[in-house]
Amino acid sequence: NEEALEEQGSLQTMKSRQLEESA
């Protein structure tokens, strides 16, 4: 399912951004 893959990608992007901000 392409939509599921897009959701996973956006979630990973959000997580990495949060990690960068907290670092």
Key structural traits:
single chain, 23 residues, mainly alpha, rod-shaped
Question: Can you describe this structure?
Answer:
By secondary structure, this protein is an all-alpha fold. Helix content is 91%, strand content 0%. The chain has one helix and no strands. The protein has one helix at residues 2-22. The model has no long low-confidence stretch (mean pLDDT 93).
Measured between the Cα atoms of the first and last residue, the distance is 33 Å
Number of helices: 1
**Average pLDDT figure:** 93
Helix content class: over 70%
Query: DSSP strand (E) fraction?
Result: under 5%
List the helices and strands and how they pair.
Layout: H1 2-22
Region (Disordered): 1-23
Quick gist of this model?
Helix content is 91%, strand content 0%. With 23 residues, it is mainly alpha-helical.
